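Per reviewer request, we include the raw input and output of the structure prediction for the construct analysed in the revised manuscript.
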Amino acid sequence: MAAVYKLASRVVVWLGPVGDDSSYAFEVMSNLGSKIIVEWNLQEMKPAVADNCDARLVDTTKPLPCRRRAQLALYRLLGRSWFERFCVRQEISLANLDAIMMCDFDLTTWQTFSNACFCLYGKPVEEGLPKSIFDEYYGRVSTVYAMRGATVRSVIVDLLRRSASAKCSGLSDKIFALLGMTRENIGIEPAHEKTINQVYQDFALTFFDFYHLFLLIYCDLRTHSVVMPTWVTNWTAKSLTKPINGQEAAAHSVPDIEYVCIFVGSAHAIKDDHSLLT
């Protein structure tokens, strides 16, 4: 499917029928996104037109004037089911910048929509909503920010971490669907006949051989699945770990590891009961 989205002349995202003030939400996103230019690789934004009003929009120290109605409309729009589905990460991240977002007859380009989310994500906003709702609203903005960010920071571990809470019918697809989005080629081929435990374990071992052991920082016992070894990350759970970026004492050292399976049971029913990584 990755090739389909990459080669499509235009991807059209259908968010559903109009409702919950969605037309106003589209108006806000189109207006905001058209006033700024975002350099996603540099994580910077600048005004599309050099005037005082637009300059204030890109000042990350100044709050964004966003009224309660706008926040509520955006909260409802970004809460639609399309944004929750895992498969859309591939759909929109591989699309070209001609992709459009539609809600009935309301539409805007994906570039404009995501640029607006960059601004909403990077600037302080006056809280017009109750804190419990505002936190969820900001989380939904972060989801869209991460979708667009995936096109320029396509590291598979980062993609997995950012997509952990997304809904997916086949949990193994959390590995397979991202292979076409990453700049790495670590030699994994989709194998849907494998169990989710086998897929996640094979991914960990392959990643260790291809790269290094920093994947272990995401192995959190608080979210660990009891049916997997402790050195295998549970990508079905939202990560509670917050690594310190750029601080790696191992200095990208090549790991020297050995994987050992300890089998127990009879010849008729062999069970992989334990596994060690040394």
